[in-house]
Amino acid sequence: MPLTATFRFFVVAVFTGIICMSTSLLIASGVQAQQVQNEVGLSISPSRKAVNVKAGTTSSGHIIVTNKTQDPMPITMSYGEFSVKDHSYDYVFHEPREDWIRFKSDTLELRPGQRQPVFFELTVPSDAAKIDRYFTLYASTTVEGAGIKSTMRVASMLFVTVDGGEARQSLEVNQADVPLFATGMTIPYSYDVKNTGNTYINGHAYVRISSWFGYHEETANNAILYIDSTRRFKDALRAPLLPGAYQLHYGYATEDGQKRNEQSTTVWYVPLWSLVLLLGVVWVIVWLIRKKT
User: Fold this and answer.
1) DSSP, residue by residue, the chain
2) pTM for the structure as a whole
3) Topology of domain 42-162, per CATH?
4) CATH fold of 171-276, please?
5) Are the C-beta atoms of 124 and 53 separated by less than 8 Å?
6) What pLDDT digit, counting tens, does each position of 181-228 carry?
7) What is the Rg, in whole angstroms, of the alpha carbon atoms belonging to the chain?
């Protein structure tokens, strides 16, 4: 290689290395800045808790609110309820329909860096139906930046089970959308799971594929099911290596493994390379027959 060409190659290589290194540093700086930004503000914990309360009784509890700024922070406490949309499972927050929660103090002042427990009472009427209620405990404050005031609000979810000894977990798995034939690197699927009981269910949705010669591939995702709701699980499973008929099993299992609902369907996997191979074999057979005749 001539000297000038070598020199040009060296310059291009160095320049490319500098660009890659600078890009990596910028990305790392951005991630670090985002992490610092996430650590500053108002926080609440735990993010979610569940309680069992008998109808006609009162239960007490608390959450922790933290001021992660360098300034004093006035806090206002409030609560609401939430539900989820079927299939997408997007959260819907709305005003409370039940007047069950009372904070010991609706307002408080936090010093910089202070963690403060906020106590509340949950009173369940004696005639309350024995089904779950889902509340959201809010802590909010007003922040000002660039002359603009805005409200910062954080939330802790509270699952309330009215305990009357009749808690019932049940679910249905249905509405599967799985292709009969698949040719790509993955096999897409979607199916619905409906909570038909009267309390929320912690568990995992799973999909696995198998065949008579023992191939096994499985995915599992932790997912909660709220009462009277349908959740859709949609993804793709890695396809097997060899063509053939496979059984695709899909379902949902509770966290303790006591309940499991599973369905299955047959998927014919025909990868593109097998089609090309088949065409090649057919072409060779036809060629041999023609040559022989």
Assistant:
1) --HHHHHHHHHHHHHHHHHHHHHHHHHHHHHHHHHHHHTSSEEEE-SEEEEEE-TT-EEEEEEEEEE-SSS-EEEEEEEEEEEE-TBT--EEEE--SS--EEES-SEEEE-TT-EEEEEEEEE--TT--SSEEEEEEEEEEEEEETTEEEEEEEEEEEEEEE-SS-----EEEEEEE--SEE-SSEEEEEEEEEE-SSS-EEEEEEEEEE-TT--EEEEEEEEEE-TT-EEEEEEEEEPPSS-EEEEEEEEEEETTSS-EEEEEEEEEE--HHHHHHHHHHHHHHHHHHHHH-
2) 0.72
3) Immunoglobulin-like (2.60.40)
4) Immunoglobulin-like (2.60.40)
5) yes
6) 999 899 999 999 999 988 899 999 999 998 887 777 788 889 999 999
7) 29
Q: pLDDT at position 212, please?
A: 82
